[in-house]
Automatic annotation (TrEMBL):
One of its GO terms (biological process) is TTP catabolic process. CDD domains: NTP-PPase_MazG_Cterm, NTP-PPase_MazG_Nterm. GO terms for molecular function: ATP diphosphatase activity. It is an enzyme of class 3 (hydrolase). The keyword Hydrolase applies. Belongs to the nucleoside triphosphate pyrophosphohydrolase family. It catalyses: ATP + H2O = AMP + diphosphate + H(+). Residues 31-104, 171-232 form the NTP pyrophosphohydrolase MazG-like domain. This is Nucleoside triphosphate pyrophosphohydrolase. Keywords: Hydrolase. It comes from the Bacteria. Its EC number is 3.6.1.8.
Length: 264
């Protein structure tokens, strides 16, 4: 088939052909919003991973994969007579103009980044009110990763004054939740232990917010550090013709400490 030369039009034509009931790909034709959503989330994380690794060639490809997800959802919507890609692009363009009156309107752009964030939140609050979403937490997406959603829920509640005013109060709450978790571990059934673990994680996310630390980014960093240091353990053991399975915890702890001293 002949395809347009313009990259965006070409991509949309490819997607339309893939979804064609007669000449398309059976797998693509069979998909729904629900079946594609997990791939969309996965592609967003792969974009973040490429950025964290500083791999710009990889980032180019991952951004393409993520763009394709938007095109895929828009094509499914067009097939169902709901909206199309132009509607999506128009809506986000209108939203960006409305949320940046200091750039596209008459407001002064002589504002700090903090003031612009505050203004952005005010505009979003007005948009929620216009959509008749009365509850403060109503439109915090259920599909977000749990840690990210916890932070957003807390941030939204803090906007209306439901928040600890001091970091020490959050830390005291963490200590309280740890005690409750220990008590649950010793005396209560597994479902109660899971509930108390969730409470502790929720307050940890709150502490991260108070410290102005993105908990998702912080945990990704901790994950990466763990991988580096454990890989060091494996490499050192392999040099000794050994492996983690054949080693004691004390041996591996010593190698972990060596990796830590080496800045890994």
């Amino acid at each position: 088939m002949d395809l347009p030369s313009d990259p965006m039009h070409r991509l949309r034509a490819i997607m339309a052909r893939l979804r064609d009931p007669v000449h398309g790909c059976p797998w693509d034709v069979a998909q729904t919003f629900a079946t594609i959503a997990p791939y969309t989330i996965e592609e967003a994380y792969e974009v973040a991973d490429a950025i964290e690794r500083g791999d710009m060639d990889e980032l180019k490809g991952e951004l393409g994969d993520l763009l394709f997800q938007s095109v895929f959802h828009a094509q499914m919507a067009q097939d169902d007579g709901l909206f199309d890609f132009d509607d999506v692009a128009r809506a986000i363009g209108d939203k960006m103009i409305a949320r940046h009156p200091h750039v596209f309107g008459s407001e002064s752009n002589a504002k700090s980044a903090e003031q612009q964030v505050s203004d952005w939140e005010s505009v979003k609050a007005a948009e929620r009110a216009a959509k008749a979403k009365g509850g403060v937490l109503d439109d915090v997406a259920l599909g977000l990763p749990a840690l990210m959603r916890a932070e957003k829920l807390q941030k939204r509640a803090a906007r209306v004054g439901f928040d600890w005013p001091e970091i020490d109060m959050v830390i005291n709450k963490i200590a309280e939740e740890v005690e409750e978790l220990v008590e649950a571990r010793d005396r209560l059934p597994q479902e109660k232990i899971a509930e108390e673990m969730g409470d502790l994680l929720f307050v940890m996310a709150n502490l991260a917010r108070h410290l102005k630390v993105d908990p998702e980014v912080a945990l990704r960093g901790a994950n990466a550090k763990f991988v580096r240091r454990f890989s060091h353990i494996e490499q050192e053991l392999a040099a000794r013709s050994s492996s983690p399975e054949d080693s004691t915890l004390e041996e591996m702890d010593a190698l972990w400490d060596a990796a830590k001293r080496a800045g890994l």
